[in-house]
């Protein structure tokens, strides 16, 4: 294993001192180190992987130095738009290094959402002419040096692939603060929804721990999986799945169970929701200030008020709640949406939170809507 400190030291040796990106569990130690330690580098956080490439381009324009952009391989598709249509050597030729978390590594067992992208990671990058090298403990020093040399010479971004367990963890010690100490965890709210749930309620759950917790609760309360759709991958899209379901299935109450990181990733989606005004839609955003599911790395905006965002966009009713009893009260009222509920929670889930045991296709067959 390489410690985040060792890795950053090596980047600094090569005068690579600017980092931006979107979290990934494989990279979480590095990201928490960049967030929380004194290292003398600039660290930004991006809303999505394409935005991270944009920030990196701005850095290069300003400083004429090579930026480093990190993200999970599932985010290559976001990044590939600005990479292939702007940064590419055939266009502006912006040098940069990509640190890509290798989920779905064919040598290891991983989750279904990584089946397609994992084994094709280098192939996908190659298709837009980006070379990639898998880093390991022996080659990391020479390959960081080589990647910088190559990107400067070719004016083409270069990728370094980071396998699971290459970088050691770095704990985010700032998680529970006096601001959120008295908040509940998300699972308490989900439990209330499941317990009070009516037949006409349907839940679209965002990527990560939210869906995993709902899966556990649906089993615990013997609700089955007929009324939940778990977005296991593709963070940020749950709310648009929920929007269209609400527009198509007007007799149902559609709940979007969103994360703050996921909502920020495609913030424009909230404007689309308010524009179509589905009366049967309840959009809940669990705001814990972090990307909890990938290792508690900060979100890009920890001070945001989603209630104000809902309100300025024209959601019919908007709430910011800090207590379970407040959600109970809202649920007792008449649903006249779109309703926006920002739920302030503290980070954290149950120990050893399981992942859905059923395969996505099995789950799809169970859904009744
Ligand atoms: C496009 C894309 N980028 C990154 C990921 C990896 N990822 C999965 S869940 C997650 C964090 C989600 O954060 P948030 O929405 O705040 O929910 P929380 O984890 O805090 O419950 C990330 C970064 C992904 N699945 N898809």
List its traits:
single chain; 369 residues; alpha/beta; Rossmann fold; six-stranded parallel sheet; 14 helices; 14 strands; binds thiamine diphosphate
What does this structure look like?
With 369 residues, the protein is an alpha/beta fold. The chain contains 14 helices and 14 strands. A six-stranded parallel β-sheet has the order 2-1-3-4-6-5, sandwiched between helices. Strands 8-7-9-10-14-13 form a six-stranded parallel β-sheet, sandwiched between helices. α3 runs parallel beside α4 and α9 (238-248) packs parallel to α11. The protein is elongated and about 65 Å long. The mean pLDDT is 97. Bound molecules: thiamine diphosphate. Thiamine diphosphate binds at residues 22-24, 72, 74-75, 78, 206-210, 233-235, 259-262, 288, 290-294, 299.
